[in-house]
C-alpha cells in the first residue's frame, strides 16, 4: 500500500472501528479516568488520529492533552488535518499550535499534539494517565512495548489497547472450495505470525490473547476485556459507512498472502469474492479483543 492508499484505508476503517469498540471495555476505561479535571493520554501508532478524535469527542474530562505518536511522517501530517476537521465539525473553536492545535467548546479544552517518532524509541517529557494503542499491538513485540508503556504512565495509569486481532477471519457466503479458502486464510494469519521487529516476534495473528497473557505475566491488573469484532456484513444488500472500501482492501491483503498457491485458483477466488462485494452479498467477520489494564 502507498501512504495515500493507507490514509484512505485508515479513514475508511475509522467508522467501522467506532462501531466495533467494545462498549463495556470503553466504559471501564472512561470510568478509570473519570473525575480527573485534566488527563494526559498518548496514542501509540496513531496513524491518521482516529482514536485521538474519538477520545477528544467522547471523554467527559474538562481538559485533555492528547498526543499521537506515529512513525510515518505523512500519516502524522494527515492526522493533524483530519483531527482539526473532526473537532471543527463538532463545534469546537480551534487555535493552531506548532505541534498540533488546541480546541475549546463550552467549558472544555483539548490539546492535540502529533509526534513523528518510533514509539519504541519515544519518551514523553512527563508521565501520563493513559496510553492507547488501536489496531497496533500485533505490529510490535509485546513484552518490550508493555515495559515502555509502563514507563510512560503515572502510578495507577491505564493502558487501553483496542481492536487487537485474535486469529479469526471468516468470509461469507461459504466458498465453493472450502479447503482452498482455509489454506489461504491460514497463510494470511501466518504472515502476521512471521512478522519480526529486529529478531523479536510481534503480537502477530493471536495478538488479543497474547496481549492478555503478557499483561498478566508483567503484573498489570486487567480491569476488563471483551471482543471488538469487525462485522463487515451487508445490510439489505448494502454496506455501512465505508465498509466496502475496507472489504476491498482486506481482500487484496488476503490475496497478497496467497503466494505459492495455484495462481488461477487464487485469481478465481479473488474475482468471486469481488463480485460478491459488488453485489452486496460478501460478509467478513474479524475476531478482535479490547483490553484495559492498570500499570503494575
Ligand atoms: C494498523 S495502523 C493503525 C493506525 C491507527 N491506530 C488506526 O487504527 O487508525 C498501525 C500504525 O502504527 C504505525 N506504527 C507501526 N510501528 C510503529 C512504531 N514502532 N512506532 C510508531 N508508529 C508505528 C504505522 O505507521 C501505522 O500508522
Description:
This protein is of the alpha/beta class and 296 residues long. It has a single domain (3-167, 197-231, 287-294), classed as Vaccinia Virus protein VP39 (Rossmann fold, 3-Layer(aba) Sandwich), CATH 3.40.50.150. The protein contains 9 helices and 12 strands. The chain has helices at residues 3-20, 23-33, 50-58, 73-89, 142-152, 178-193, 207-217, 243-256, 263-278, and strands at 38-44, 63-70, 93-97, 100-105, 108-116, 128-134, 153-172, 196-197, 200-201, 221-227, 230-232, 283-294. The strands form 2 sheets. Strands 1, 2, 3, 4, 5, 6, 7, 10, 11 and 12 form a 10-stranded mixed beta sheet that branches. A hairpin with a 2-residue loop joins strand 4 and strand 5 (108-116). The longest helix has 18 residues, at 3-20. The radius of gyration is 20 Å and the shape is globular. The model has no long low-confidence stretch (mean pLDDT 97). The structure holds S-adenosylmethionine (SAM). S-adenosylmethionine (SAM) binds at residues 10, 45-48, 50-51, 69-72, 75, 118-120, 134-136, 139-140.
Descriptive tags:
two-stranded antiparallel sheet, single chain, 10-stranded mixed β-sheet, 42% helix, alpha/beta, Rossmann fold, globular, binds S-adenosylmethionine, 296 residues
Level of helix content?
A: 40-55%
Low-pLDDT windows of residues: none
**CATH arch. level architecture:** 3-Layer(aba) Sandwich
Quaternary structure of the protein: single chain
According to CATH, the fold-level topology is: Rossmann fold
Q: Helical region count?
A: 9
- Calculate the terminal CA-CA distance, rounded to whole Å: 38 Å
Question: What's the CATH class label?
Answer: Alpha Beta
Backbone structural class: alpha/beta
Amino acid at each position: 500500500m502507498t501512504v495515500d492508499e493507507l490514509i484512505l484505508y485508515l479513514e475508511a476503517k475509522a467508522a467501522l472501528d467506532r462501531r466495533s469498540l467494545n462498549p463495556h471495555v470503553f466504559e471501564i476505561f472512561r470510568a478509570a479516568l473519570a473525575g480527573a479535571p485534566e488527563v494526559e493520554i498518548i496514542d501509540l501508532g496513531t496513524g491518521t488520529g482516529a482514536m485521538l478524535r474519538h477520545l477528544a469527542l467522547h471523554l467527559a474530562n474538562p481538559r485533555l492533552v492528547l498526543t499521537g505518536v506515529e512513525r510515518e511522517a505523512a500519516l502524522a501530517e494527515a492526522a493533524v488535518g483530519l483531527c482539526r476537521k473532526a473537532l471543527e465539525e463538532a463545534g469546537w473553536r480551534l487555535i493552531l499550535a506548532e505541534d498540533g492545535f488546541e480546541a475549546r467548546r463550552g467549558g472544555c479544552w483539548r490539546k492535540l499534539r502529533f509526534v513523528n517518532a518510533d514509539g519504541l524509541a519515544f519518551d514523553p517529557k512527563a508521565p501520563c494517565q493513559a496510553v492507547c494503542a488501536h489496531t497496533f499491538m500485533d505490529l510490535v513485540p509485546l513484552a518490550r512495548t508493555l515495559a515502555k508503556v509502563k514507563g510512560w504512565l503515572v502510578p495507577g495509569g491505564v493502558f487501553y489497547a483496542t481492536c487487537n486481532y485474535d486469529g479469526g477471519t471468516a468470509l461469507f457466503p461459504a466458498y465453493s472450495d472450502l479447503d482452498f479458502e482455509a489454506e489461504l486464510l491460514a497463510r494470511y494469519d501466518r504472515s502476521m505470525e512471521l512478522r519480526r521487529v529486529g529478531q523479536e516476534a510481534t503480537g502477530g495473528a493471536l495478538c488479543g490473547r497474547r496481549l492478555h497473557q503478557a499483561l498478566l505475566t508483567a503484573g498489570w491488573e486487567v480491569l476488563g476485556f471483551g471482543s471488538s469484532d469487525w462485522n463487515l456484513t451487508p445490510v439489505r444488500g448494502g454496506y455501512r459507512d465505508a465498509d466496502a472500501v475496507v472489504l476491498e482492501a482486506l481482500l487484496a491483503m488476503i490475496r497478497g498472502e496467497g503466494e505459492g498457491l495455484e495462481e488461477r485458483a487464487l485469481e478465481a477466488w479473488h474475482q468471486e469474492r469481488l463480485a460478491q462485494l459488488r453485489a452486496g452479498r460478501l460478509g467478513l467477520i474479524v475476531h478482535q479483543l479490547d483490553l484495559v489494564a492498570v500499570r503494575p
